[in-house]
Amino acid sequence: MTIEVQDVEKYDSSSLKSNGTVQDDQSNLREAPDGGISWIVLIGCFCGLFATQGYGYSWGVYLDYYNRHVYPGEMTNLTWIGSLWFGLTNITGPVYVYLVGKMGYRWMTGIACILSCFAMMMASLSNAIWQLYLTQGVLSGIASSLVWFPCISAPQQWFSSKRGLAVGIAISGSGIGGLVISKIVRAAIDSVGYRWSLRILGFLQLGLMGISFLTVRPLNPLPKDVPVFDFSTFKNSKFWILFTIHFIGNFALYIPSGFVPSYAASLGLSDDVSSNMSAVMSVIMFVGKISNGFLSDYLGRSNMTMVCSVMTGIVCLAVWTTAQTAGQLWAFVVLFGFFGGGYVSMITSVIAECVGVELIESATGWLFFAWMFGGLFGQPVSAVIIEHDNGSYTGAIIFAGALFLGAGVLACVLRFMRSGPKLFVRI
């Protein structure tokens, strides 16, 4: 059997495109070095996503604690705190190219560093849910958005042949961050109370995002004379498919991390077990992001996007819906962590293959802006479904699984748009 190999696109050093084409002297532009200083940039990206997305993946610990001890019986209202954060963490997407052209990575990460710490300090002083909306939701979400896009874009610029691995490592910061932060938060809540846990989290974010401020840089100077909204990527049909994958998939992505702790509690499992499940899910997502990213460099990024998307949906529908014991729920946590983590890294690493590296900034901004709607409404819709079903999680789980399968079908379409009818091709 002959397996054809299609090379990934190389960085086009002759131009940087936004709404038009910005020509630069080729001698001033660099090819992706795939090593050396690239790893320093990658460490900064990892730290930025560790601090911000790690908080997002550990949000379920706060949600469960607030619902049971601080604001009992307010599950739907409380889910809006996390939803505001998940939605606003992508709010700057449409204007990202404009912001990065006017401000640069350093100003964006620097502002985020201060704002994120401030948000947690103010949250620790709150006495009402609406105050948590403003602090843990809005302020923290905006800070996360300012860090998210540079830390997602930079690895795609600084790496070429190792792009899948690099993106996986960067995004794995969210998984390992979720593991570490959820354990720190739980331990802090138990020992010094939830208010001090928020202050500790704020200082942790200040230090980690400070590393991002010092290290995350674009590979080449970015065009400054760009429109506020850059629609050039929407001329690409493959981009439309990828945009839809991002849009529908994110409605489902945060449902497991947000609801597994409370689902475990509904089965009668202890607080320690439910907290450990969030932590283990985060660490398996860490493994899934890196391992699937590594495999994609050899098996093809579009191929792995298709596999991870479909498998994540199957795991939700086949494993989570039937999980009635601790062992069955642990199986779901591990499987979802692996394929869900792979899903996140794959739909990111395939961006350059769809639009070309010269349009990564614009494409990244719009694609992750598509996450805003799922981040904003995914958990509240699931909470409404759970309450409508008298506390049963089955409807919400089916909702998540069906969306992932829909994303998987579109990933198959994207794969064959790129490869044609060929089955055995690395693409």
TrEMBL record:
Membrane topology designation: Multi-pass membrane protein
Keywords of this entry: Membrane, Transmembrane, Transmembrane helix
GO cellular component: membrane
InterPro entries: MFS, MFS_dom, MFS_trans_sf, Proton-linked_MCT
Name of the protein this chain belongs to: Major facilitator superfamily (MFS) profile domain-containing protein
Membrane-crossing segments per the record: 37-58, 78-100, 107-126, 132-152, 164-184, 196-216, 237-255, 275-292, 304-323, 329-352, 364-386, 392-417
Gene symbol of the encoding locus: ABSGL_08524.1 scaffold 10403
A molecular function GO annotation: transmembrane transporter activity
Domain Major facilitator superfamily (MFS) profile: 238-427
Signal peptide start and end residues: none
Similarity comment text for this entry: Belongs to the major facilitator superfamily. Monocarboxylate porter (TC 2.A.1.13) family.
Keyword set includes Lipid metabolism: no
Cellular compartment(s): Membrane
Region (Disordered): 1-29
Listed PROSITE patterns: MFS
Biased composition (Polar residues): 13-26
Gene3D superfamilies membership: MFS general substrate transporter like domains (1.20.1250.20)
